[in-house]
Amino acid sequence: MKFRKATENDVSKIVAMVADDELGKTRENFQIPLPKEYLEAFKEINSDKNQELIVVENENFEIIGTLQLSFIQYLTYQGGIRAQIEAVRIRKDQRGIGLGKMMFEWAIKRAKERNAHLLQLTTDKNRPKAIKFYENLGFKKSHEGMKMHFE
What is the mean pLDDT of each run of 10 residues along the chain (151 residues)? Predict the structure, then answer.
């Protein structure tokens, strides 16, 4: 497996994975050609030194997974850095073979390399299998999250 920063050419494959689940289908707009909003977002992410959009390639150079790491500098924890992992997705035909665990091990190592003092994530309460997976990796429920969606 090879982990690398995503390029603009990878964006449609990333969006396809993000859209390919129960919740993603309700909020994404995957089509070819890809709506310009996705490419604009990629350019913003790619230009920010505190954002890393990562793809995972197999031995055939096929993209089989993706994740995004954000590094958040803040004043608490004595000016610490917090890493946030989001949009972890694995191509459907590659699920159940241990790739998710490998991706999180990579992300934990990367967060430590960037001197983050913790790695955090949010997950939808409607994903009980994902919650169990994260707990098995060592993540602990520590806060109650809240969101306010804007129309």
Answer: 96 92 77 91 97 97 97 94 96 93 97 97 89 94 88 82
Distance CA 117, CA 81 (A): 6
Q: Give me the pLDDT at residue 22, please.
A: 74
* pTM exceeds cut of 0.85: yes
Residue 11: CB atoms within 10 A of its CB come to 20
Work out the end-to-end distance of the chain between its first and last CA atoms, rounded to an integer number of angstroms.
40
**49 CB burial (10 A radius; 0-12, 13-18, 19+):** exposed
The domain spans of the chain are 2-137
Question: Could you tell me how many helices (H) and strands (E) the chain has, helices first?
Answer: 6, 5
pLDDT at 28: 80
> CA-to-CA distance for 129 and 59, rounded, in angstroms?
28
| Domain 2-137 CATH superfamily | Gcn5-related N-acetyltransferase (GNAT) (3.40.630.30)
Q: For residue 101, what are the contacts with CB-CB under 8 A and spacing of at least 6? A: 137
Q: How many CB atoms lie within 10 A of CB 72?
A: 12
- Looking at residue 23, its pLDDT comes to 73
